[in-house]
Structure formats: structure tokens, C-alpha cells
Amino acid sequence: MKGRLIPHHTRRHQILYQGLKFFAYAVLLVTLIGVMKGETLSESAIDFYRHLPSTVRGWEKTGLPEVYDRKTLFKYIDGGAELYISYHFEKLSAVRYMKGNDEIKVDIFDMGNSYNAYGVFSLGRESIGTEIGQGSEYSSGLLNFWKDRYYVSILAYPETSEKRQVVFELGREINRLIPQTGPLPPILSGLPSEGLIPESIRYVRHHVWLNNHYFISNDNILLIDSGTEAVIAAYHGTGKKYVVILVKYPDRQQAQKAEKGFITQCLGRASSGITKLKNGCYTGVKGKENRLALVLEAPDKKTLEDALSRILSTLW
Fold first, then answer.
1. What pTM did the predictor assign?
2. Domains in the chain: boundaries
3. CATH fold for the domain made of 21-177
4. From residue 249, how far is each of 149, 183, 301, 303, 313 by CA, in Å?
5. CATH of domain 185-312
6. Which of 130, 152, 294, 301 is deepest in the core (most CB within 10 A)?
7. CA dist 49 → 6, 19, 32, 151, 311 (Å)
8. pLDDT tens-place string over residues 250-301
């Protein structure tokens, strides 16, 4: 088994300010027509622009929002669009507040559903905050949070005390404008609670993001694609941390194929699905119906077997 636990550090892409003025005007017109027909705020990300305050502590909302979809997001986030697209991103509404030559960027991502919004948020967080939305994190002028189908990023760099106040006022206002909360992915219920490190939970929809947190292989051995869901989390063990990965597939056949591939390529063809590593820890995999559970680098065999048993005794 060649996997390794990779410490997570905040990785945020530098957002580039680009104008798509004609496109934005056209989209805004369509949206306004939709609103007059009774469309609710939660049904269109661009509506946030109309409802956000014109000024906040002397910072003025400028121009029209920039609107991007799956085809155009690359123009806005150079090198980072793949992350959002892998979570089935639908639309981005980008709003700007200016004071002199200084700028605060408000990016509101419509992720289609709450599972995907939570997933994007979970992938980058280092702590758990509940001040805004269903989960939030603030660091050095950057506020990120999620609520229902939306993932929101508000950037004020370099940070000042004044900018921090504006960022949180905007965050609270956007939170207010989202009328409902959304459910968490059911797969999270499969994670055993004992020893769980909550801030380590990552909900992933692509094997690359899984490898960012625990490297298994350059190949997609676990067959994670757009039709699968996976979650990875760290646990407190005896003297060290170990890792749990759960994957839910569209059907039993794909789950069985992934299990066989992992055993063959990572466990030295261990018939029991469990192997002892050179460092004395244990790694194992077990499937049930269309679900697959992996426990990686557990401190002892009993910890591994107990975890697998608890995981597969629940429906997620």
C-alpha cells in the first residue's frame, strides 16, 4: 500500500477581474423578466445582484454582475474552474464593491444542489465555523460559506479591520437572501462518530480531489466518476491518525470492480481484503451492495475490523 496522508493547506486561486459586459446585460434582462413572472431568489444566482445593498460602509456596488456558466468559467478562474465543474457547477454571479481603487469581490456559485455546495466548501476548509450559512470559514480577508445550493466566496485583500466588517456584513446579507437550508449528503451518515475529526471531512466527486488528501494512485483505482459519491475523513487512533474512505456507486457491479482493483493493486491481492503495512498499521477494504468502505493505516487490526463493521451496518 503506497498511500499517504497529505496535510491540507488552504489553496485558493487568485481571482482575475474580467468584464463580460454585453453578456451580463443580456443575462440580467432575462433574469428581470423571470422575476416579474414570479421567479424566486433561490432559483437564479444573478438575482443576488438586485437585492444586495448599493453601498456598505462607503463601499459601492459597481457595474453589472459578471455571469459565468460551465463553458465560460475558465475565463474567470484560470486553472481553478475544474474544481467547481467536477461538482456539477451551474452558474456564477460575480459582484464587485469598490472604494477608490480598492475592491471587494463577491462570488456566488450556484452548485445545483446542497450536496455539491457542501462538497466545494468541505474541500478547502481547515476549521468549522457556524457564524454564517450552514458552514463558514474566515481567514486573512477571505470569507467562504455555503447554504442550500450556494457556495459563496467574499475576498477583500489585503485585509483591514474595515474590510473585514464589510465582508461579514455582505456575508450576513447574502445568507439572509437565501431562504432555506439544504440537506447534507447522506453518505456522511456512514462515517463512524468515535474518533472522528469533523473538520477533516471531505465530500468528493472526483478521484483527483481524493488524492489531494490521501494519495492512493495516479490511476482512478476506486472508479470515482460523475456518477459516484465519496467521502474521506481522518480519525484519532492509538498514537496516530488513520483514514476512512466511503464510496457509493450507481450499481453493485462498479462497486465490486473497484474493490477488486484496490485489493489487486494496493493490498498485494490479499484474499481477506486486509493487509498489514510495513509500518505496522493495517489497511483494508470491504464492499456491500453498491457501497465500498476503506480503512487506511489503522493502528491495529481490531480498530480496522470494527470500523468496517460499523460502516457497513448502516445505510448511506
1. 0.84
2. 21-177, 185-312
3. Protein Transport Mog1p; Chain A (3.40.1000)
4. 22, 20, 26, 25, 17
5. 3.40.1000
6. 294
7. 39, 16, 11, 15, 44
8. 999 999 999 999 999 999 888 889 999 999 999 999 999 999 999 999 999 9
